[in-house]
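Subject: Interface between my chains keeps coming out wrong

I've been trying for a while to get a sensible model of this assembly. When I model each chain on its own everything looks fine, but I need the whole thing in one frame so I can look at the contacts. Pasting all components below, labels as-is. Any help appreciated, I'm running out of ideas.
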Amino acid sequence: METRPLGDTGHDSTVATFGAIALNWLEQEGANQLVEHVLDYGVNHFDVAPEYGDAELKLGPKLRQHREEIFLGCKTQERTYEGAWRKLDRSLNRLGVDTIDLYQVHGLEYEEELDAITDDDGALAAFREAKEEGLIDHVGLTSHGDPGLILDALDRIDDLESVMFPLNPVVAGKDDDEYDYEAVLARADERNVGTLGIKAFAGGTWPPTDELPEADRPFANWYRPVTAPDEISERFDFAAAQGLTSVVSAGDPKLVTMILEAAADYDGMDEAAQRSLIERVRHDDSPVPEQLHH
Amino acid sequence: MDVPRTVATALADRPVAGKRCLEAGAGAGNATAGLLANGAARVYAVTNDRDHARTTRRRVGDEGNRSSDGDGNDEGGDDHADRLAVLEADLRAVPLPDDAVDVITAHGLCNVLDPASLSAVAEELSRVAAPGAHLVVDDYDPVPDGAAIGELFAVENAASELSRGRPALTFYPAAFLRRFFAGHGWEFERERTLLEPVPWTESHVAAHADQAVDAAKEGPGETGDALAAAARRLESEIGSESVGRMYGLAFRLPD
Ligand SMILES: NC(=O)c1ccc[n+]([C@@H]2O[C@H](COP(=O)([O-])OP(=O)(O)OC[C@H]3O[C@@H](n4cnc5c(N)ncnc54)[C@H](OP(=O)(O)O)[C@@H]3O)[C@@H](O)[C@H]2O)c1
Ligand SMILES: C[S@@+](CC[C@H](N)C(=O)[O-])C[C@H]1O[C@@H](n2cnc3c(N)ncnc32)[C@H](O)[C@@H]1O
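Reply #2:
Try treating it as a single job with all components included. I did that and got this:
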């Protein structure tokens, strides 16, 4: 599988990153199998978070077995120094590892949160200490919020080494600033900050729950994903062709193999085909930006 | 409104800022929006269809506070209405004097012009263009053999021929329009592929089926009914299809 430099980290990430939230929906044995399956495709970048149910615990055994082959991203939704330290210790314990390669501020939504994490007793102070102590190697940030906020974060956090944000043809077809994640990609590239794409496979929002109760949704993603192999592969190709370092696989394990196949087959997408995809989907609803109110 | 990538790509290397523009065949207002977003001094958006004129005014004129970069205050952002004149007129007799415009766009226009109209329209475009003017012609290559959408276009054309004596759609190859406009004095500058494949979405397919049914209703009884039924059948069979190519040509008049 193709690899690309993750900004200045010195790590080359595969063009697909495994979104380990998928493990949360599996029993331990299935989780072990899925990790082996992902590694068989050569994927070398994994992404997990304490909020993904049991995903950290279920990733643990195979992560420890294959620690050298995996560049591990984890995150925290804590915004304070104390909270971030606590969550980092907890994640290290649950994962059963000594170090996390990329530790990310998870799901930034509001300008006040940016103020909080950059404060003297904010989460980033804990990140920096942990980095000095060798517990984490690199600092990142994730958001499916307003692109303007992510741009601010890029401007304000000097030691930021990666950003994770949505990018897909639905948002690419919309001109408003609130959908302008391409500006985030451009700014990150300028700064040599690694870029991880999420929501590449988002098809739209789910119907209202009175039409389709949550329990009857056929996929675990909180948005409606595209699900046909052709659509998955053109969505992957589109995201990878925008120049992201890596595209994070969707949260439902049923989609993972199709995404891995698309990533293994990836060999670019010409611009006329990218425009064709944008033109086809640009009137669809976008599930991002979304205020998730964690 | 969002400026489609096709329009943005077609205009990207054309000097539009500060220019007097003619958007020939305003349709949905897409190219009009692109010209305004790129800083046109004035856009005459001409269509012979009252609904299209209204649509263009509503989508582009009224809503000009959201243009290219969408921040609501880029230059020209909120004065779209001042720079836009939507004219309901026939392009075979454009209501503008000679040498009146510097940029002309025909975005998806030629395929709705039968050869006789195309010829008359080209005369007019050449007349209103000032020396050194730019012409942008974006259109579709003929639909490849075997494409399902081709059957729907065939039915639409059959119905139109029978009831109106001319085809509804003619897909001119890029090479054809290139030589055709050269014959009207336009120097060819470049060709780009805007879309490949062309996404004929459900709403496009439905709109063409509606056109076919409307034309069929004007046609002779039994044949008309059969064509209308065929159009509806094809609409549901096809759903949507991505096939073929949309190209963008650019020309210039000598100074
Ligand atoms: N409670 C919540 O607010 C919340 C939010 C998102 C997802 N989820 C759960 O996660 C499942 C699938 O997640 P998904 O569909 O969003 O992911 P996805 O796009 O299918 O998978 C991409 C991966 O990126 C992560 N990701 C997505 N957006 C992110 C962000 N802004 N910041 C950091 N990481 C992000 C995902 O988790 P994240 O999206 O969590 O970050 C997931 O690990 C859902 O079924 C839902 O149960 C819950
Ligand atoms: C397919 S639309 C073009 C799309 C449009 N350029 C846009 O960017 O959204 C074709 C337009 O040409 C107009 N048209 C066709 N023949 C015409 C004629 N003879 N005179 C004026 N307008 C004409 C149609 O009414 C329609 O508005």
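Reply #3:
Confirming on my end. Residues A 19, 21, 47, 51, 106-107, 142-144, 164, 198-199, 220-222, 248, 250-251, 292, 294 surround NAP (ligand 1) (CB under 6 Å).
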